[in-house]
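Bug #77: duplicate submission created two jobs. Keeping one. Sequence:
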Amino acid sequence: MSNTEIYLNSSFQACKKLTNNFSTSFSMGIYFLGKEIRNPIYGIYGFVRVADEIVDTFFDIDQTNELQRFHQLTKDAISNSYSSNPILHAFQHVVNSYKIDIGLIDSFFDSMKSDLTEKNYDRDSYKKYIYGSAEVVGLMCLYVFLSGDKNKFNELKSFAQKLGSAFQKVNFLRDIKEDFQSKGRAYFPELKVEDRLTHSSKEQIELDIQKDFDEAKEGISRLPRASCLGVYLAYRYYTKLLKKLIRTPVEKLMITRIRVSNLQKLLLFPSALAFTIFMRKTK
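Kept job's structure:
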């Protein structure tokens, strides 16, 4: 193995470590992807995670300047096919190998930048934020899953966007206490930072999320064999989390963070496997 290959492999390992440390649910989903596409998805997740932490964790730094710098470093890495930052080196390799649309990355940074300036969202700005923060990530992954099949990409594009949207909205609902109280953000257009979450507004949010999930499910069944099981496991995890959130009273949601235990996550595997086997037989 050449030094170039060792460096790239080490960069993907850094992304994998970051993923495993931050998200057991996505780690589980990626584990059940085909071996040949795991590293590229780790590369995408690692990149997204670093940007996310700049705006969501490190409040004592100049976040605007740091995010702008990270955006420029990302562009440089893609242009040069190299970065001294291992996370960006892995990500540029994915972007360049799968010819991911650079516009998706710019939209992602637009949403990250709005986290530093926006506190409340109307329907239009909320839709734009969801697109840049979540739907484009689903589309980046779809580039990897389909490996250059443009016709298939166009066929499944809307489903990938819906799934990314649903994941993000579930995260918003789960993290509403922290977003409201610690970060002073209210993503849902039904709410303002100074408002209180009500049963009615919560129910409206839940119905919107379920609609996204219902529309996304059909697309999962059309994915290639190497990606179907891993994506469906992530889908099952998030739909289970949504059901727990639906059962959680508003008062409890505003004082605690709802989660799915690791054991419950593991128990999702048999039904997910059965689903993918059935879908392969019926294709």
